[in-house]
């Protein structure tokens, strides 16, 4: 094994790697949000065609500033907490990985809730009539306007779902990725990109299956207007009225987006670790 492969990730690599992946997968994330918040069934192709026809190609990057803010708050925090925790405790077993990932993701979900809220709202503006759009200029403008127009507690509208989703997402992504990679390497697979791709695909499937129902409810709660829902239970109830499959609405675009995002994220993370990580003896 080369010296570079022994290097360990720095705590902030997750946020940097995720922002790199988000620049590529943001249009898929936007279409996932639009499908989830639309009560009519629309395919990925129909949604993309509608966006392009009505607003042009640049509309696919609507809300990119909020997406990047989210990567440098929520994603940076969950990878950072996990990385620091893994340096303190033994994470060779799957149970220890799941426990550490769940706790890291839960806290990070609370930290990233405001950015997630603005991200959902900016993306959803694409499908609304001009007179109903919030028209946030960018992520910071959105944060300021929410505080001024709705009060600072509104920044944490849906924070409980963000935390729960963060826990399950981090388990699906990080714990499953690390465990899959460990198993593949134990079976003789080399520490190189093709091994990382297989492990990241496994983690993307696990993360999508674990988080899609939570993500559906979170998106609708965050995008709701005053009085639309009485609370979290009301969001769940009204979504359930549309049928049990409503909780998996947008699962295809979710996996279509989360799959490439997860692969790009971990490939970027492994690149950063291999070339810029620290060696244990030089910490």
Which percent band covers the strand fraction?
A: under 5%
Number of helices: 9
Kindly identify the CATH topology: Mitochondrial carrier fold
What would you report as the Rg, rounded to the nearest angstrom?
19 Å
Shape: globular
Q: Can you give the helix content as a percent range? A: 55-70%
Runs in which pLDDT lies below 50 for 5 or more consecutive residues are none
Mean pLDDT, all residues: 87
Q: What kind of assembly state do the chains in view correspond to?
A: single chain
Compute the number of strand runs.
Answer: 0
CATH class: Mainly Alpha
Query: How would you characterize the largest beta sheet?
Result: none
Task: Give the helix/strand layout.
Layout: H1 13-37, H2 44-55, H3 64-86, H4 94-124, H5 139-150, H6 159-186, H7 193-223, H8 232-240, H9 251-276
Helix pairs in contact: 1-3, 1-9, 3-4, 4-6, 6-7, 7-9
Keywords summarizing the entry:
single chain; 283 residues; mainly alpha; Mitochondrial carrier fold; 70% helix; 0% strand
Q: How would you describe this protein?
A:
- The protein has 283 residues and is mostly helical.
- The chain has a single domain (4-277), classed as Mitochondrial carrier domain (Mitochondrial carrier fold).
- It is built from nine helices and no strands.
- The chain has helices spanning 13-37, 44-55, 64-86, 94-124, 139-150, 159-186, 193-223, 232-240, 251-276.
- Helix 6 runs antiparallel to helix 7 and helix 7 (193-223) packs across helix 9 (251-276).
- The two termini are 20 Å apart.
């Amino acid at each position: 094994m080369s010296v570079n492969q022994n290097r360990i990730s720095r705590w902030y690599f997750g946020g940097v790697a995720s922002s790199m992946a988000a620049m590529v997968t943001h249009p898929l994330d936007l279409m996932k949000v639009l499908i989830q918040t639309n009560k009519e069934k629309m395919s990925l192709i129909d949604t993309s065609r509608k966006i392009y026809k009505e607003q042009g190609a640049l509309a696919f990057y609507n809300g990119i500033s909020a997406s990047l803010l989210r990567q440098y708050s929520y994603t940076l925090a969950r990878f950072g907490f996990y990385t620091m925790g893994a340096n303190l405790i033994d994470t060779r077993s799957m149970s220890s990985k799941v426990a550490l990932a769940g706790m890291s993701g839960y806290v990070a979900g609370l930290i990233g809730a405001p950015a997630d809220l603005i991200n959902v709202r900016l993306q959803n503006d694409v499908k609304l009539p001009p007179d109903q759009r919030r028209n946030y200029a960018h992520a910071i403008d959105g944060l300021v306007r929410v505080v001024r127009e709705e009060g600072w507690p509104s920044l944490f509208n849906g924070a409980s779902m963000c935390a729960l989703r963060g826990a399950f997402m981090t388990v699906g992504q990080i714990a499953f990725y690390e465990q899959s990679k460990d198993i593949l390497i134990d079976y003789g697979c080399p520490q190189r990109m093709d091994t990382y791709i297989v492990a990241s695909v496994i983690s993307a499937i696990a993360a999508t299956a674990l988080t899609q129902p939570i993500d559906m409810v979170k998106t609708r709660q965050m995008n709701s207007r005053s009085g639309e829902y009485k609370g979290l239970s009301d969001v769940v109830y009204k979504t359930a009225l549309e049928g049990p499959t409503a909780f998996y609405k947008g699962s295809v675009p979710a996996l279509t987006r989360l799959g490439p995002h997860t692969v790009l994220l971990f490939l970027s993370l492994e690149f950063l670790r291999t070339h810029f990580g620290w060696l244990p003896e030089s910490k």
